[in-house]
Amino acid sequence: MSTSTGNGWAQLRQQTRSLEAQTDTLFHTYSRFASAPNIPPKPTEEESKTESQIQELLEKRENLISQLSRLLDSESLLTTSALKQNNLALHRSTLSEHRSTLSRLRASIHEARQRANLLSNVRSDISSYRSQHPETAEADYMLDERSRIDRSHGLADSVLSQAYAVNEQFGTQREMLGNVQRRIVGAAGKVPGINGLIGRIGAKKRRDGIIMGSFIAFCMLLVLYFM
Q1: CA–CA separation, 151 and 159 (whole Å)
Q2: How confident is the model over 208-220, as a mean pLDDT?
Q3: Is the whole model's pTM more than 0.85, yes or no?
Q4: CA distance linking residue 89 with residue 166, whole number of Å
């Protein structure tokens, strides 16, 4: 009796897990209808079929869980394992979660369809009104153009303001560098012998430059002579 009960439990659990996996796959398909960019005003055949399949799977799973529960109740307290009880509780929890998911997705699809229908009706009313009042349509067009021009001018003013701010920062930095340079020159003038040292360094650089220039000129003359 315990062996047949164990086999029945394993088969029922395998069927339950298979239906749970199928439900997850259908949820993935069903959720795409809620996020569709152009949702149709009425449910499509595929949408209705997917929802019906999910509902059917939930009912089958509920029936299997009831069978598992009855099978577990038929076992004696000595042979009933805590693992089976945990498995049954997990299947019940997953079923409840999937029912909530179906309700949430169904509501999301309904809200998306309501928004799309409302937007379509508003656009239709606007088009109808403009066709009946062409002077108003022209005025609206001019207002839209004026708004776009104002936005362009605002963007240009923003760019110019940023450019002026950057230019002002550059001027401030140049002034700071000039102050630093004047302070360094003033401090160097107060140190005895520093001006003479700077002068000798400058003279040495000029002398080295003259020597290097003379050497390069000499080399060029030799190249020209041997050519």
Answers
A1: 12
A2: 76
A3: no
A4: 67
